[in-house]
């Protein structure tokens, strides 16, 4: 076989392989990474029931992560240290909200509902004797003595 004939065979074989590849591509779905196929994360919106049964009051752009709040306040007003303990007692990441989380909760209070026009504790301490609060009557944030008895609503990030 001379060089010209070898070149024809190589080109013919290459054409056949290319033809099969094009045909196979049209019959097989494109490869999807396992991480994308296994992705079953729920998408949440404001007011939805969250992963632990709270009301969603903040979600990021993906809708997969955010904050949920318990549907109701604690029955009794509590001191700050009792509020921290009670909010954390729900387990699974439930906690007394930070000053920032509580401000966002105030801004979306109508989505969650059930708030009194009272002051609510945050987990953010000002100093050894005081912690930050969020007024749900007037929207102000201030600091209160930790022995004061205020309203409490637990939150959780997801």
From TrEMBL:
Pfam families: Lcl_C
InterPro entries: Lcl_C
Superkingdom of the organism of origin: Bacteria
Sequence ranges assigned to domain Lcl C-terminal in this UniProt record: 76-156
Protein name as catalogued: DUF1566 domain-containing protein
